[in-house]
Automatic annotation (TrEMBL):
Its EC number is 1.1.1.45. Keywords: Cytoplasm, NAD, Oxidoreductase, Phosphoprotein. Pfam families: 3HCDH, 3HCDH_N. This is L-gulonate 3-dehydrogenase. It is found in: Cytoplasm. GO terms for molecular function: L-gulonate 3-dehydrogenase activity; NAD+ binding. Homodimer. Belongs to the 3-hydroxyacyl-CoA dehydrogenase family. Residues 6-186 form the 3-hydroxyacyl-CoA dehydrogenase NAD binding domain. Coiled coil: none annotated. NAD(+) binds at G11, A12, G13, T14, M15, G16, D34, E94, K99, S121, N145, K279. The keyword Protease does not apply. InterPro entries: 3-OHacyl-CoA_DH, 3-OHacyl-CoA_DH_CS, 3-OHacyl-CoA_DH_NAD-bd, 3HC_DH_C, 6-PGluconate_DH-like_C_sf, 6PGD_dom2, NAD(P)-bd_dom_sf.
Length: 313
């Protein structure tokens, strides 16, 4: 197995720029590819801004920023991006044919032992692996947005993935500061998005029913269970509460929980009216002009501080 420090990240968008930043911060040499210069430049600007936030939060020294940026080279040539890489991560759009074509090009130019990782959120690993010739060197590493900050990475191997490579990638994820979780079985939505979807479904159901306003529903999580979850997960929380209590709670509440098999009508009507969230200035909440960038900066600062706190324990 090749283990040089050359990494390729394909796609410099929301996820790719953060993944590239992570590797660069850990001393890897990163080739960041996108389809045109405008896209790679956008990715670079986001990395520069994020590194500044890391420095402002005391997570890195300001005078290390240039060195980290020097570890990143931008390219619009896939061949240049992957030919020397030992690990290639694709963070390209969630379109199956596009990913298959990308895998073909990667395998045409990559070295014979390069490890290929996909950041897919929704495709099953076995479906993606159909587009890969060397399946033993292919895995999913599913990062969370913002990838450079949120610690979790879910790792999903396909049936032919080499156990040695799976262990090696778990190790690399720890080296770049992540908390890897290895799935024993392929499952749509992996672990985190399934749990998150169950909660969001119930939150939208409560909002739709007029049980409380949006702010109250959000506060019920951020000041309640969400406050605990950064350190104690839902299963350990159950142990703390007492399994006898939780058995009663689940027996009493389960019949009343929302179990719809599609998104609620409230979401349909918001989407149809172009209330798509921060990107259109309004979704469940309103986002007046200029408030989006302020909120994003604030969110990233809060996450960085939480990250710092988590590292202390
Ligand atoms: N956004 C999220 O919160 C999130 C979280 C986890 C996983 N993901 C997954 O990560 C992947 C990327 O999502 P994103 O949110 O970064 O998307 P994005 O649209 O922000 O970025 C995708 C980038 O890929 C580039 N691209 C287009 N065609 C390409 C090609 N043929 N080869 C390489 N790059 C190409 C685009 O120019 C763009 O810059 C998807 O598979 C998505 O499901 C997204």
């Amino acid at each position: 197995m090749q283990s040089n420090k050359n990494i390729a990240v394909l796609g410099a968008g929301t996820m790719g720029h953060g993944i590239a930043q992570l590797y660069a911060m850990s001393g890897y040499q990163v080739m960041l590819y996108d389809i045109d210069d405008a896209a790679t430049q956008r990715g670079l600007v986001q990395i520069q801004t994020s590194l500044q936030h890391f420095a402002d939060s005391g997570l890195i020294e300001k005078d290390t920023i240039q060195g980290i940026l020097n570890n990143i080279q931008l390219t619009t040539s896939i061949q240049e991006a992957v030919s020397k890489a030992s690990i290639i991560t694709e963070a390209a759009p969630e379109i199956l044919d596009l990913k298959y074509k990308l895998f073909q090009t990667i395998e045409a130019f990559a070295s014979k032992d390069a490890i290929i990782l996909s950041n897919t959120s929704s495709f099953a690993v076995e479906v993606l692996a159909q587009g890969i010739q060397h399946k033993n060197r292919f895995l999913i590493t599913h990062f969370f947005n913002p990838a450079q900050i949120v610690p979790l990475v879910e790792i999903v191997a396909n049936q032919e993935s080499s156990p040695e490579i799976v262990s090696y990638i778990e190790h690399v994820m720890r080296v770049i500061g992540k908390e890897p979780v290895l799935l024993q079985k392929d499952k749509p939505g992996f672990i985190a998005n399934r749990l998150q979807a169950a909660l969001v479904r119930e939150a939208l159901h409560l909002l739709n029913e007029g049980v409380a306003d949006a702010k109250s529903i959000d506060t019920a999580i951020t000041a309640g269970p969400g406050f605990r979850w950064a350190f104690i997960g839902p299963l350990e929380t159950t142990d703390f509460g007492g399994l006898d209590i939780w058995r009663n709670v689940l027996n009493n509440l389960s019949p009343t929980l929302n179990n719809a098999d599609k998104a609620p009508e409230l979401l349909d009507s918001l989407v149809e009216n172009q209330h798509l969230g921060i990107k259109t200035g309004g979704g469940i909440y309103d986002y007046p002009e200029n408030s989006v960038s302020q909120k994003t900066v604030r969110r990233d600062r809060q996450f960085l501080l939480l990250n710092k706190l988590k590292k202390e324990f």
